[in-house]
Amino acid sequence: MNKTVECMRCRAPMDGGFVPDHTGESGYRQQIWHPGEPQRSFWGLKMKKEEVVPVRTLRCTKCAYLESYAVRVEQGRAR
After folding, report:
1. 25: which of 4, 11, 12, 52 lies 20 to 30 Å off by Cα?
2. Residue 38 pLDDT > 80, yes or no?
3. Cα(27)–Cα(4) distance, rounded to whole angstroms?
4. Residue 69 confidence (pLDDT)
5. Which pTM value belongs to this model?
């Protein structure tokens, strides 16, 4: 997501960033997306590492609208 994106509401440019997830006492990490329905385990939720996709969020520089995308990057290109 290296190209300039316009806000769909006001047409101003959007800045790239991310929404941090609070992980408890260990701090923060980048928000992720996982396919399917959540399945509980003893430690929280069952997830397969190979299916997790980082979430990238764009913020409008004028109206502050947020837009999020789950983009898997493999070998330097988005998939």
Report:
1. 52
2. yes
3. 31
4. 94
5. 0.74
